[in-house]
Recover the amino acids of this structure.
């Protein structure tokens, strides 16, 4: 059995970071070679740094918080809360919010800036050094918005008295009326007594803030219960053990890939716990892989007790998860278990992935025919989070040292690469050209290595891509149920009647008929046909053919595994 746990290569990332920093292209105190020291980059450093320092040390009293959203402008906001209080401006109507740029350009600019800011969000103590280095690179267009963001972050830190402004919300907030975009940081302040901030900020009750702020106001609607709930939930890992997680991705109209997550634990997939032991043995996994082909003929009657117990635990988990997601019976049987690996999120948490029928694994948001998971009933319990934001939040929870090392190395490499490329473009003498060329090649090699490490860590996109391949074969839920049923048919120690087994087989057959007579995406959401996964079939129902037929459309009672589990 394979797992992803071994692919979080933190040591290699740290080694790359040390090598990148050893070049010291932007280090004022470095003893670099005379060729690099005479580079035009360093000639402009003092003037650029002087301009940056003037902006940095501007008096806080001259900084004004925004009170209305300007058209197509970019803003930074922070939500600092303590129990039922939130930090606001003196008017009790606005959160601490600063304008970054009065015209951000295109949506691509926002996407790039937000992705970069997610990396910065991992290293609050490095902001001053990062800005100091970036200001030395003169006339770098790609750094214009980034420098403005760093300046606004420093100003928010100064005004609030908080260096760590919290977690960046998983997506920018956009005002549909003006086109203004806000990047929001959220942090809980545990001890507000020893808190020092500017006179134009104060604590106020959340209820009072919502009362004074119109919900139609973009700046007022930033703060919501859902936003705070997301921050608190994203810090909570699932309980240790082996879990069954449901993966369904969605491609939005803006071509952004998102994933369905539970609102209470948005750093993970919708899941149920299979057992406390997070490890899956080789024999247990092999017993599942044997079901991936010839599912109707899988009859391993000689399975060991441990294999059988594992399958029973997995069946219970699938029933419970399908019930939670309100998935119809005919669709539920066509779901597949991801057969390539068990994902190891941490040493104590592992996941087996459950996938919907292809092509619903990754569907277009506008394709209503594929949204059979009854999203309308799950709006309060699930979210659609962009995959990039999910990955960062997920790794923060389960692999914090990895994401910290990776983002630190990428930020350093970005600056050093930009400096080296600029030096190469501006090199004049043969000596300068020969000096900068191998340096650029080394940095490109480091960048490629980091990209490969990141690809290895991105298990979610790996699963989606693999599961959509034509030659991929998963483990059908129907095959798992059929196999377990066949095992119990051959086990005389199990005390259930022939009628019970016949009914289970009858339900499988009827489910096939029901599937062929309905749309392939079967969106049966009638409350009368949905029952709890804890509902059992009585002996009277088992002996009544009409009662058995009524069971068939139920989301989870297409096999009453409770009869013999």
């Amino acid at each position: 059995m394979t797992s992803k746990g071994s692919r979080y290569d933190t040591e290699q990332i740290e080694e790359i970071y040390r090598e990148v920093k050893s070049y010291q292209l932007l280090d004022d105190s470095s003893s670099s070679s005379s060729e690099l020291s005479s580079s035009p980059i360093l000639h402009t450093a003092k003037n650029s740094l002087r301009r940056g320092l003037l902006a940095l040390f501007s008096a806080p009293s001259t900084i004004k918080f925004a009170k209305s959203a300007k058209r197509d402008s970019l803003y930074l906001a922070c939500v600092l809360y303590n129990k039922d209080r939130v930090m606001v401006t003196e008017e009790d109507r606005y959160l601490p919010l600063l304008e970054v740029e009065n015209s951000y350009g295109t949506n691509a600019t926002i996407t790039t800036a937000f992705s970069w800011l997610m990396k910065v969000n991992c290293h609050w103590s490095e902001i001053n050094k990062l800005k100091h280095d970036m200001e030395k690179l003169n006339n770098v267009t790609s750094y214009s918005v980034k420098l403005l963001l760093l300046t606004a972050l420093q100003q928010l830190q100064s005004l609030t008295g908080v260096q760590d402004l919290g977690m960046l919300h998983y997506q920018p907030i956009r005002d549909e009326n003006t086109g203004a975009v806000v990047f929001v940081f959220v942090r809980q302040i545990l001890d507000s007594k020893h808190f020092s901030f500017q006179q134009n900020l104060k604590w106020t009750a959340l209820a009072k803030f919502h009362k004074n702020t119109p919900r139609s106001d973009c700046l007022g609607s930033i703060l919501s219960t859902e936003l705070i709930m997301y921050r608190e939930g994203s810090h909570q890992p699932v309980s240790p053990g082996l879990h069954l997680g449901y993966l369904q991705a969605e491609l939005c109209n803006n071509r952004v890939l998102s994933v369905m997550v539970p609102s209470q634990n948005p750093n993970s997939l919708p899941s149920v716990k299979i057992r406390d032991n997070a490890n899956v043995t080789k024999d247990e996994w092999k017993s599942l892989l044997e079901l991936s082909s010839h599912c109707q003929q899988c009859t391993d009657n000689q399975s060991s007790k441990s294999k059988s117990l594992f399958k029973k635990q997995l069946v219970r988990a699938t029933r419970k998860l399908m019930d939670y997601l309100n998935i119809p019976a005919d669709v539920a049987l066509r779901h597949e278990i991801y057969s390539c690996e068990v994902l190891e999120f941490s040493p104590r948490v592992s996941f087996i992935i459950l996938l919907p029928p292809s092509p619903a694994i990754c569907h277009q948001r506008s394709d209503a025919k594929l949204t059979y998971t009854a999203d309308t009933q799950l709006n309060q319990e699930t979210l659609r989070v962009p995959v990039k934001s999910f990955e960062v939040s997920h790794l923060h929870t389960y692999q914090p040292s990895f994401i910290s090392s990776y983002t630190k190395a990428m930020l350093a490499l970005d600056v050093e690469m930009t400096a080296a490329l600029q030096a190469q473009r501006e090199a004049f003498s043969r000596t300068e050209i020969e000096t900068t060329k191998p340096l650029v090649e080394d940095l490109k090699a480091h960048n490629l290595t980091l990209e490969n490490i990141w690809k290895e860590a991105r298990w979610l996109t790996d699963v989606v891509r693999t599961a959509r391949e034509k030659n991929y074969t998963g483990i059908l839920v129907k095959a798992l149920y059929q196999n377990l049923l066949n095992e119990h048919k051959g086990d005389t120690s199990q005390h259930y009647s022939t009628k019970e087994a016949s009914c289970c087989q009858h339900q499988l057959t009827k489910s096939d008929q029901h599937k062929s007579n309905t749309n392939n995406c079967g969106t049966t959401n009638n409350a009368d046909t949905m029952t709890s996964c804890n509902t059992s079939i009585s002996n009277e129902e088992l002996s009544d053919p009409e009662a058995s037929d009524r069971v068939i459309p139920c989301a989870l009672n297409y096999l009453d595994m409770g009869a013999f589990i």
About this structure: The mean pLDDT is 76.
